[in-house]
Amino acid sequence: MEQNTAPYREHNRTSLTKEKLKQGFLDNLYFIQGKFPTLASRNDYYLALAYTIRDRMLHRWISTATNYYESGARTVCYLSAEFLMGPHLGNNLVNMGIFGMVKEVVEELGLNFEELLAQEEEPGLGNGGLGRLAACFIDSLATLEIPALGYGIRYEFGIFEQTIVDGWQMEKTDKWLRNGNPWEVPRPEWAQEVRLGGHTEQYTDENGRLRVRWVPAKIVLGIPYDTPILGYRTNTANTLRLWKSEAPESFDFEVFNRGDYYGAVDQKVTSENISKVLYPNDEQLSGKQLRLEQQYFFVSCSLRDMLRVLAIQNIPLSRFHEKFAVQLNDTHPAIAVAELMRLLLDEYLVDWDDAWEITQRTFAYTNHTLLPEALEQWPLPLFASVLPRHLEIIFEINSRFLDEVRIKFLGDEARLARLSLINEGGERYVRMAHLACVGSHAINGVAELHSELLKQDVLKDFYELWPEKFRNKTNGVTPRRWMILSNPSLASLVSDRIGNGWVRDLEQLRQLEPMADDADFRKEWWDVKRANKVAFAQYIFKRTGILVDPESMFDFQVKRIHEYKRQHLNVLHIISLYRRLKENPNLEVPPRTFLFGGKAAPGYHTAKRMIKLITSVGEVINRDPDIRDRIKVVFVPNFNVTTGQKIYPAADLSEQISTAGKEASGTGNMKFSMNGALTIGTLDGANVEIREEVGAENFFLFGLTADEVYALRASGYHPYDYYNTNPHLKDVIDLLRGGSFSRGDADLFRGLTDGLLHHDPYLLFADFQSYVDCQEEVSRAYLDRDHWTRMSILNAVRSGKFSSDRSIRQYCEDIWKAEPVPITLLGQNEEPTGFIQ
Ligand SMILES: *Cc1c(COP(=O)(O)O)cnc(C)c1O
């Protein structure tokens, strides 16, 4: 890549020589932090380093904005209520190609580089897979040089920090901004006003046309905070634009002038509440007014921001959809359909038909869930009180839409009711998924199986209406963060053999397939895994005081805690293995460490009890002198991107055991496989495709298929029968019911066991025996180290499909019609021509 031009080359703030990096670092420590080395805290050093790197990103950022402005290129806008970014510093160093050099610089200054990296508080602005997908996607968009913006919310408090007290989850607020955020730049000059509440009025305009005016009850300001997102070794630096809510000055003053100082302050406080906190529910709608306000807030700011860009680029409104491809990451931003219509109709006076064409050609919708309880719907009265004008527009969209359905399916009243944007069964709701489907030209699922199930089940009626809208875009993850940054030893081992083309083109890893038969390579591969496990064992000891043996198999299940993900099925197997080992100490099973991690939504009591179940079983087993050197159970607290970066590289086995037909895709499964873990899993989500890629012989498959699950439910599922006929299962459940893992308290897990015996909505009992048998196969396989390592290598080198670069290429080709715009860096005499993005 081209470097900075001459005058920049020698500058303390831009040069990439070690000397200038050092000088820049000390300058920033002095001029930004106001500290000498003798007084500086670790955080001062971290910030000085972060600013030193940011300084070196700005030239690319400004050049990128200028290039995009001049090319007028089509821009992808990724709208997501969550961006689970993880720490920026290490990733930026990797993407700039200066990780090793900066490490040396920091060490030559006598500082601990790892400590400085660890000092960064991660921006945890997401719950799990969905938010992390958005983060991987903006990384890939920048690497592929696609003009793109991520639009979201700058939550003051991200996902809570989890601690474990007496085996239970405790939540602490995530004060990620307390030490300052060096990566963001506020852009108050591009603030947007957002209206909320109030009522609508009809009036006749000067041309005698009937119009609608929205008289809001309050107005809040959205302030954009921009973070540069670097591509991997390209000049591209795209933007993540997150909106913070504030009270508008003028509004405060009005109340203030009436002498109501406290009222004015109240106004400020309520306005700031909108972007205050991320809702910590994964796969569960909250139905709270503030959540709807958050969604509308960031969507309205983002669309107005696009209109601002359109205006300064002199592009006519009728070409909005040619300039912008807007992707809706789940239904959280689906209100955008009604908001763009409102902006066009009420503020730009566009005709309905033209506005609707622009809207449909602008949006595309990604569905993320098969769980009915996660499909967002808003009670009509609540919706009307927050967005009265949008409700009118949704009624009009619905009425025109249902007219179309009536013609196509004459006389099919039941179908009309199923398709309607309004759920009329009892209490009335606005169905956000239906709004997204109607207002988009493309609808996609996130794995092959998921996309099929959408067509057969969740969105069947829409598929029958518009089959041409439906697509699949299998998820992916970025190999920059999830391999190079988090598993540098594996990355070097790979690059030593095949160069580093694989980082941008992950399919190249297949060149290593023959190496699976090379004993020396297998030894190196095993040693890398082993070293990662040693490092993780040290981390676990520091965090939990539990000693784990790196010789044992590291078996991980890390993901949000949820019944459908079935962490409790994992526990049932552990108890059954424990029982067998107690009965037969000569059983030949390799030592295994069962590790769990993940957060439970604070209001999801069953999930919180599942954590208590894991920790309680761990307490008994880890204390049992007969067993504790053979199996261990550990709960890793506060699973997030930072801990994930240590976990995936240290895993031998990845547990992907959701009930078939419930997990839309999963992306944790991909990160594990890429890092050489083998998977034990059901045919669910992307597991199906992972198994296809790595080969059935390198994947531990168990359980019912989605079709079998469906058939079993239809024919009447009776979990009690499994309990009665399977003595192993009965043993396990009886131990739990008798209080063996709750110090005799037979009530502690009563709710869980009764729930399984009488309902078992996720069919743990139906899959139990198959899972236990499969785990025995896993244990046998681990005893053959050579064979296991061979399988591990094949898993990693055949995971090329699961790079988010592949996903983004497919979105670009098939949905967004977006092309790369390579960035030429501005020369020293060239003034930037404009800042648009
Ligand atoms: C990848 C990732 C997830 C998603 O994990 P799944 O196993 O796909 O549910 C959730 N949280 C974090 C922090 C992740 O990095």
From TrEMBL:
<feature type="modified residue" description="N6-(pyridoxal phosphate)lysine">
    <location>
        <position position="671"/>
    </location>
</feature>
<dbReference type="InterPro" id="IPR000811">
    <property type="entry name" value="Glyco_trans_35"/>
</dbReference>
<comment type="function">
    <text>Allosteric enzyme that catalyzes the rate-limiting step in glycogen catabolism, the phosphorolytic cleavage of glycogen to produce glucose-1-phosphate, and plays a central role in maintaining cellular and organismal glucose homeostasis.</text>
</comment>
<dbReference type="GO" id="GO:0005737">
    <property type="term" value="C:cytoplasm"/>
</dbReference>
<dbReference type="GO" id="GO:0005980">
    <property type="term" value="P:glycogen catabolic process"/>
</dbReference>
<keyword id="KW-0328">Glycosyltransferase</keyword>
<protein>
    <recommendedName>
        <fullName>Alpha-1,4 glucan phosphorylase</fullName>
        <ecNumber>2.4.1.1</ecNumber>
    </recommendedName>
</protein>
<keyword id="KW-0808">Transferase</keyword>
<comment type="similarity">
    <text>Belongs to the glycogen phosphorylase family.</text>
</comment>
<comment type="function">
    <text>Phosphorylase is an important allosteric enzyme in carbohydrate metabolism. Enzymes from different sources differ in their regulatory mechanisms and in their natural substrates. However, all known phosphorylases share catalytic and structural properties.</text>
</comment>
<dbReference type="InterPro" id="IPR011833">
    <property type="entry name" value="Glycg_phsphrylas"/>
</dbReference>
<keyword id="KW-0321">Glycogen metabolism</keyword>
<keyword id="KW-0119">Carbohydrate metabolism</keyword>
<dbReference type="InterPro" id="IPR035090">
    <property type="entry name" value="Pyridoxal_P_attach_site"/>
</dbReference>
<keyword id="KW-0663">Pyridoxal phosphate</keyword>
<dbReference type="GO" id="GO:0008184">
    <property type="term" value="F:glycogen phosphorylase activity"/>
</dbReference>
<dbReference type="Pfam" id="PF00343">
    <property type="entry name" value="Phosphorylase"/>
</dbReference>
<dbReference type="GO" id="GO:0030170">
    <property type="term" value="F:pyridoxal phosphate binding"/>
</dbReference>
